[in-house]
Design brief:
The structure is a single chain. Helix content is 38%, strand content 17%. By secondary structure, the protein is α/β, with parallel strands linked by helices. The protein has one domain: Nucleotidyltransferase, domain 5. A five-stranded mixed β-sheet has the order 3-2-1-4-5. Strands 6-7 form a two-stranded antiparallel ribbon. Strand 6 and strand 7 form a beta hairpin. The longest helix has 17 residues, at 164-180.
Length: 197
Amino acid sequence: MGIIFGIDYGSKLSGNTVIAIFRENQILFMDVDPKVDADQFIRNAVAHFKPALVFIDAPLSLPGVYQKMEGFSDYHYRLADRETKAMSPMFLGGLAARAMDLSAWIKSQSIDVRETYPKLMANRFDLKSQGYKTNKNALRECANRIKKCVKDPIQYNPSEVITWHHLDALLALMSAMSFQCGDFSTYGDPKEGLIYV
């Protein structure tokens, strides 16, 4: 399977960006410190680990109307956003622009990068019943629920999931691993931009 990244992407200096890394049958986490440039942190990690695949929780395209695509007239949402009930890239503004810039750089390194939406993978694991995104106890329950689904020989320690950002990075990684196994869904229109789960 090679090295795979799942990234929960946050604002540039907030310290909320986390990378979940699958490497040699282990799942590891790297988180950026507050006031450290998250984009450079990701670039450094990509340059160091050279992953085969990166799944990132951030918009990697704009609504088709901005690209003057025929049949697209929505200035706010892509079809993928409507189908997944995700936030509009236009609402996310600078974060979306940063993510697209980062994606272009990752692709320039001959690495496959795709957009994902962890909330939908959380639905696949039925994490809502465990209290997804409610409190610290629920975080532990959600991390343990995923552990039950991660089979040997993959090593994963739920105690390393210390924030909801870590959990969303893990869910992004789960989407990437499912993609590599051919067990995935897509949302949206390929011409405009797809979300992979």
